[in-house]
Amino acid sequence: MATTSHLPSKILIFGATGAIGKYITDAILSAEALATQQISIFTSAVTVSNPGKQALLSSWESQGLSVITGNLNDAGDIEKAYDGIDTVISCLGRDVLASQIELLTLAEKSKDVQWFFLSEYGTDIEYDESSKTEKPHQNKLRVREFIRANIHRVECTYLVTGPYIDMFLTLLPGSEEAGGFDVESKRAVVIESGDDKVGFTTMLDVGKLVVAALRHPSASKGKILKVQSFVTTPNAILREFEKQTGVKWKVDHTTNQRLRELELENWDTDSPTATRITLRRIWAEGGTLYEKTDNEILGVVSSDMESLAAVVKRAVEGRGYQGKQPSLYYKQETGTQGT
User: Fold this and answer.
1) Catalytic annotation present for 140
2) What is the Cα–Cα distance from 126 to 321, expressed in whole angstroms?
3) Of the listed 53, 109, 132, 140, which one is catalytic?
4) Which residues pair with 13 in a beta bridge?
5) Domain parsing of the chain, residue ranges
6) To the nearest 10°, the Cα dihedral for 198, 160, 328, 335?
7) Each residue of 27-48: pLDDT tens digit?
8) Count of alpha carbons within 13 Å of 253, Cβ hemisphere only?
């Protein structure tokens, strides 16, 4: 049962039109169980005028969402956007994660902001002792350190989802050895035997889980929540692809040693793929596995989450990552108005 006291009433979202932000914003707009009076997004004038974003923004506005246009680096714009807002949800992308420090500083100074969701959806940056040296984690670690030292009034929530399986179901162009699947060529690349377990969350489920956290403030505020859709193996994913396509796939294997070599090669050349290779290496080494997740304390059970078959089906039908916009199929896929 959802907690009914102190539910958010006015939500502001940063990074709403980004890769994961679309799913989170769409889930919040679709969640009838949230007693929100106002849902707004903060975005740039460039985004608002982008023809590729206008259909999405128009769809959201027709559902009652307000669009606030401003500069993420302008303190005055942020202060104005915070007026009357009690809950802030950051979905900012990896390149601008450090800007959350200023957003948090202004939230702490504001008279209204009470709750702040960090853009932590993804790989656990404090999984074990080795996590602190991983290059992709550094900006998130800086933000966590800043919060622990400086943020005292605003309650912060970290929703750690592990890898998005939608993105895992692709091969990295030029770095196919890092693992993944290609529907068109019916080819899979798996690390080692392919039997090592990985905890995944679908991008649709990330949105559901954010809504669940919003509906359970007593269980969520001030917490680092570890959540997942399911745990599976690359070989199980391969079998599901073969089942749904009706053909045997070509399978290549990459050793952990080769994966580490590929990782170093990409960092040495400043390749934009380096981060994604490091993350795939972390996943292959077990950095997504927990004895127990926090799904249950958010009122989420396994049947609420998407299945492996569902996400593979989208990929086979060309509706996976970088496919159809989530708001165009969210209700059809979930059969619900929010978790």
Assistant:
1) yes
2) 26
3) 140
4) 41, 89
5) 10-328
6) 80
7) 999 886 665 679 999 999 999 9
8) 9
CA 249 and chain centroid, separation: 29
Domain 10-328 has CATH 3.40.50.720: yes
Yes or no: say if 36 and 113 are a contact pair by the CB < 8 Å rule: no
Question: Which residue reads 């053909």 in tokens?
Answer: 247
pLDDT tens sequence across 157-170: 999 999 999 999 99
Helices (H), the chain: 21-30, 45-48, 51-62, 75-82, 100-109, 138-150, 165-168, 203-215, 217-220, 234-245, 256-268, 274-284, 308-316, 330-334
Do 120 and 79 touch, CB atoms closer than 8 A?
no
The whole-angstrom separation of Cα 89 and Cα 91 is 6
The answer to which of 12-16, 62-66, 177-181, 328-332 has the lowest mean pLDDT is 328-332
SS3 label, residue 19:
coil
Say which amino acid occupies 335.
G
- Angle among Cα 203, 204, 206 to the nearest 5 degrees reads 65
pTM over 0.85: yes
In angstroms, rounded to a whole number, what is the distance separating the alpha carbons of residues 273 and 67?
32
Separation of alpha carbons 200 and 122, rounded Å: 9
Region class of 293: left (phi > 0), else alpha (psi between -120 and 50), else beta: beta
Name the strand (E) or helix (H) holding 67.
strand 66-69
Pairwise CA distance, residues 140 & 300, whole Å:
26
Residues 6 or more apart whose Cβ sits within 8 Å of residue 127: 282, 287
Question: Please, which residues have CB within 8 angstroms of residue 248's CB and are 6 or more apart in sequence?
Answer: 186, 242
Per the structure block, which two tokens stand in for 179?
């693992």
Residue for token digits 């949105």?
Answer: 207
